[in-house]
RNA sequence: GGAUCGUUAGCUCAGCGGUAGAGCACUGCAUUCACAUUGCAGGGGUCGUAGGUUCAAAUCCUACACGAUCCACCA
């Protein structure tokens, strides 16, 4: 053994050997118990970051442990096309490198280029996963936008549609003017910001608003029904002066109005505000669109037409000031605005014709599965989060006006039933007459089933990326692809553990539970294990702009993957954010060094015994145990406790606790105490002691292998020269 | 507004009913010995605050303070 452990050479060597010999690929053996983790597919729009290293480590620990237990163990890797995010990332790249927009390329070319970009990222990412030591089955690697997934995804779409759980409707949606797409409620985040609050005059009323530019779309004024100041006005109409002439408006009474806010009077703009939309529905108000999908005022706004909302806001306020319609302005008003999660543009709420999943019926089963503990969530405190979200679930808008994603399996007979939005956004669509029939079909239909027209137009919209990834646990296992009895799906589904970050509990986990149960009749996984965010040493979120990003590959180069893996789980607590600084990684590298040197010490002794032709007895725990010296008995009993402890902690998903036990035992019990106390005996060629030392050490290597696979494998090989790698050895 | 989590040694965190623990940092000593990516020894905490339950409380309960996160339609 070399004096110094050289992870650079060792890690690559072992990974190649493991992969080449097929240890990552399980045999489907009906008699054997399966253990299966479907990897959360990383977004293929960049390289791996430390958060990926985190889940890869945790999952690899479970996978290696179960493989060593003898379970038929499948870890299925993949990559996510990550619809909107990738489109945004690629558009930025296009802008930066070529000065082009997606419109310059056109839809087909944009899609092709984006696919090229994504697939090349995927390849890079896969090699990065290898560098971390992820022992996943590359034969089954999947990509969410692989055409082979069209069929199962379309099947789901069709079934939902047939069951009345998927509908097309004109609803209030979150519109991102930059991405030019509708977003689900989850894809919107809120940001505190200071905006002027304008007190504007509406005939007899003064009311407060941050959006005076939407006044052209107002179709009522609302007050609280019990507000004594205004009660007499309810249901009455009033006439008043606006910037573009006289107008008439009705006063409504609605509980949604907070009498304590502003003057207690609000303008109601059903077309451009979610609360107002609901009020409009309750009171039968007209929904008057005044902002177009490009974020500009339309021709209902008179001379303000074509101004974008922010410019319009300023000008409208100024003009109102001039006309004496502006009472006062509160410049210190703070509120939160909705922004696009991915590109941070302020959301424009719009009424639009989109596809929605009726979520409640799906949620009911998803709630039951968790309540009756068919699905366990670890740590437990997330159960409440999950249940509260599920119980208050709202319909899910799944259509996107993006180019990067699965197309909706919807065909229109002629352009008649395409939405106005779709027609404007897709000017190249063939103008054709048809009966307007809407066909939902798994495969492209040849002709309209109603009028036999052959010119069907596929819905230009794409699916929310989470709609397809929400089916990942069964689509990757070839659900519905084969009639054979021994498919991956039949064997590995429901999968064992879904390990992922708590931040996508709703986005992903919740959807997988709903769609998994809906399509397969079974839960998609038995356990949900949620890990926390990796933060920097000071608890700050890592970000490129802050410059505090720890690049896992850089760390692996300098300290080795084992050190990084150990640092990511040592001293952590399930589901809590992890603070990671370089000193921790260094400490784990030192531990590896300690482990290495124990190995060297033992090897030196083995060699010495061999030189002197002293036979090292093969140690048999059962029969020889009683005859051993006191200290040998003691270390073996401590080892027994360690084995039990480590096993129990892994079974309980306390990976940190098991790693800490191993660290403590190997360094402070075995090296510092036992080996130090036994040195003299080894000098005197005591073969019993050497044999116990080897046995104890080998057992430690095995227990440590899931955590630090490379160094343990290398030492094990150097010590035994046997062609039986740890990856395939038996746990205990 | 609702919910959740956290507050324990200088730092990061474990412990979650029975005489305060780990890693890092710190101090002193050691070093041709497998390892200075080391060893030995040591300093350092009335476990956020105030009440309560208990023979016994970091540990259970109740308030409060501070910090963080999530959810919600703050015009």
UniProtKB/TrEMBL annotation:
<feature type="domain" description="Aminoacyl-tRNA synthetase class Ia">
    <location>
        <begin position="13"/>
        <end position="580"/>
    </location>
</feature>
<dbReference type="InterPro" id="IPR009008">
    <property type="entry name" value="Val/Leu/Ile-tRNA-synth_edit"/>
</dbReference>
<comment type="subunit">
    <text>Monomer.</text>
</comment>
<protein>
    <recommendedName>
        <fullName>Valine--tRNA ligase</fullName>
        <ecNumber>6.1.1.9</ecNumber>
    </recommendedName>
</protein>
<dbReference type="GO" id="GO:0004832">
    <property type="term" value="F:valine-tRNA ligase activity"/>
</dbReference>
<dbReference type="InterPro" id="IPR013155">
    <property type="entry name" value="M/V/L/I-tRNA-synth_anticd-bd"/>
</dbReference>
<dbReference type="InterPro" id="IPR002300">
    <property type="entry name" value="aa-tRNA-synth_Ia"/>
</dbReference>
<dbReference type="InterPro" id="IPR014729">
    <property type="entry name" value="Rossmann-like_a/b/a_fold"/>
</dbReference>
<dbReference type="GO" id="GO:0005524">
    <property type="term" value="F:ATP binding"/>
</dbReference>
<keyword id="KW-0547">Nucleotide-binding</keyword>
<dbReference type="GO" id="GO:0002161">
    <property type="term" value="F:aminoacyl-tRNA deacylase activity"/>
</dbReference>
<dbReference type="InterPro" id="IPR009080">
    <property type="entry name" value="tRNAsynth_Ia_anticodon-bd"/>
</dbReference>
<dbReference type="Pfam" id="PF00133">
    <property type="entry name" value="tRNA-synt_1"/>
</dbReference>
<keyword id="KW-0963">Cytoplasm</keyword>
<dbReference type="Pfam" id="PF08264">
    <property type="entry name" value="Anticodon_1"/>
</dbReference>
<keyword id="KW-0067">ATP-binding</keyword>
<dbReference type="GO" id="GO:0006438">
    <property type="term" value="P:valyl-tRNA aminoacylation"/>
</dbReference>
<comment type="similarity">
    <text>Belongs to the class-I aminoacyl-tRNA synthetase family.</text>
</comment>
<keyword id="KW-0648">Protein biosynthesis</keyword>
<keyword id="KW-0030">Aminoacyl-tRNA synthetase</keyword>
<dbReference type="InterPro" id="IPR002303">
    <property type="entry name" value="Valyl-tRNA_ligase"/>
</dbReference>
<dbReference type="InterPro" id="IPR001412">
    <property type="entry name" value="aa-tRNA-synth_I_CS"/>
</dbReference>
<dbReference type="GO" id="GO:0005829">
    <property type="term" value="C:cytosol"/>
</dbReference>
<feature type="domain" description="Methionyl/Valyl/Leucyl/Isoleucyl-tRNA synthetase anticodon-binding">
    <location>
        <begin position="633"/>
        <end position="719"/>
    </location>
</feature>
<keyword id="KW-0436">Ligase</keyword>
<dbReference type="InterPro" id="IPR033705">
    <property type="entry name" value="Anticodon_Ia_Val"/>
</dbReference>
């Amino acid at each position: 053994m070399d004096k110094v452990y050289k992870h650079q050479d060792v890690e690559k060597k072992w990974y190649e050997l493991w992969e080449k010999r097929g240890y990552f690929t399980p045999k489907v053996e009906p008699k054997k118990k399966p253990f299966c983790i479907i990897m959360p597919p990383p977004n293929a729009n960049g390289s791996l970051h430390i958060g990926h290293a985190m889940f890869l480590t945790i999952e690899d620990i479970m996978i290696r442990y179960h493989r060593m237990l003898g379970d038929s163990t499948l870890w299925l890797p993949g990559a996510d096309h990550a619809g909107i995010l990738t489109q945004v990332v690629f558009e930025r790249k296009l802008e930066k490198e070529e000065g082009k927009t997606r419109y310059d390329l056109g839809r087909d070319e944009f899609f092709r280029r984006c696919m090229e970009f994504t697939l090349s990222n995927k390849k890079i990412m896969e090699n990065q996963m290898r560098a971390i030591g992820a022992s996943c089955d590359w034969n089954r690697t999947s990509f969410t936008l692989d055409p082979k997934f069209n069929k199962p995804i379309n099947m789901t779409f069709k079934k939902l549609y047939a069951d009345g759980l998927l509908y097309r409707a004109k609803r209030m949606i979150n519109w991102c003017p930059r991405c030019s797409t509708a977003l689900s409620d989850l894809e919107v985040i809120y940001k505190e910001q200071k905006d002027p609050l304008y007190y504007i005059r509406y005939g007899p009323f003064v009311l407060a608003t941050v959006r005076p530019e939407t006044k052209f779309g107002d179709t009522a004024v609302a007050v609280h029904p019990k507000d004594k100041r205004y009660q007499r006005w309810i249901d009455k109409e009033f006439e008043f002066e606006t910037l573009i002439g006289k107008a008439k408006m009705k006063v409504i009474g609605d509980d949604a109005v907070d009498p304590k806010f502003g003057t207690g009077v609000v303008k109601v703009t059903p077309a451009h505000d979610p609360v107002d939309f609901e009020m409009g529905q309750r009171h039968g108000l007209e929904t008057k669109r005044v902002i177009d999908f490009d974020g500009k005022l339309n021709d209902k706004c008179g001379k303000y037409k074509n101004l974008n909302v922010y410019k319009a806001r300023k000008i409208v306020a100024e003009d109102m000031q001039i006309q004496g319609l502006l009472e006062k302005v509160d410049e210190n008003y703070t509120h939160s605005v909705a922004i696009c999660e991915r590109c941070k543009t302020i959301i424009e709420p719009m009424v639009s014709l989109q596809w929605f999943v009726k979520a409640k019926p799906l949620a009911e089963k998803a709630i039951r599965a968790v309540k009756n503990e068919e699905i366990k969530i670890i740590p437990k405190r997330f159960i409440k989060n999950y249940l509260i979200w599920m119980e208050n679930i709202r319909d899910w808008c799944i259509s996107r006006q993006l180019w990067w994603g699965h197309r909706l399996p919807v065909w229109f007979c002629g352009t008649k039933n395409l939405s106005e939005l779709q027609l404007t956004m897709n000017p190249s669509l063939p103008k054709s007459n048809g009966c307007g029939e809407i066909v939902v079909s798994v495969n492209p239909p040849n002709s309209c089933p109603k009028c036999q027209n052959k010119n069907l137009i596929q819905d230009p919209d794409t699916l929310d990326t989470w709609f397809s990834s929400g089916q990942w646990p069964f689509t990757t296992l070839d659900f519905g692809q084969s009639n054979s009895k021994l498919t991956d799906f039949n064997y590995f589904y429901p999968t064992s553990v879904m390990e992922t970050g708590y931040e996508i509990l709703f986005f992903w986990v919740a959807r997988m539970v709903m769609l998994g149960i809906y399509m397969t009749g079974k839960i998609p996984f038995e356990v949900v294990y949620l890990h926390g965010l990796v933060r920097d040493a000071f608890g700050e979120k890592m970000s490129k702009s802050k410059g505090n990003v720890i690049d896992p590959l850089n760390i692996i180069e300098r300290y080795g993957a084992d050190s990084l893996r150990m640092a990511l789980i040592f001293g952590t607590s399930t589901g809590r954010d992890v603070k990671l600084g370089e000193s921790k990684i260094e400490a784990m590298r030192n531990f590896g060094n300690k482990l290495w040197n124990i190995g060297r010490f033992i090897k030196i002794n083995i060699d010495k015994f061999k030189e002197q032709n002293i036979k090292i007895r093969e140690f048999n725990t059962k029969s020889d145990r009683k005859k051993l010296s006191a200290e040998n008995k003691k270390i073996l009993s401590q080892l027994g406790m360690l084995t039990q402890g480590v096993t129990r902690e892994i079974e309980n998903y306390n990976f940190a606790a098991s790693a800490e036990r191993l660290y403590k035992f190997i360094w402070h019990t075995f090296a510092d105490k036992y080996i130090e106390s036994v040195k003299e005996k080894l000098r005197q060629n005591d073969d019993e002691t050497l044999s116990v030392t080897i046995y104890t050490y080998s057992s430690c290597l095995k227990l440590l292998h899931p955590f630090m696979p490379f160094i343990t494998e290398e030492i094990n090989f150097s010590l035994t020269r046997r062609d039986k790698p740890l990856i395939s050895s038996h746990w205990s």
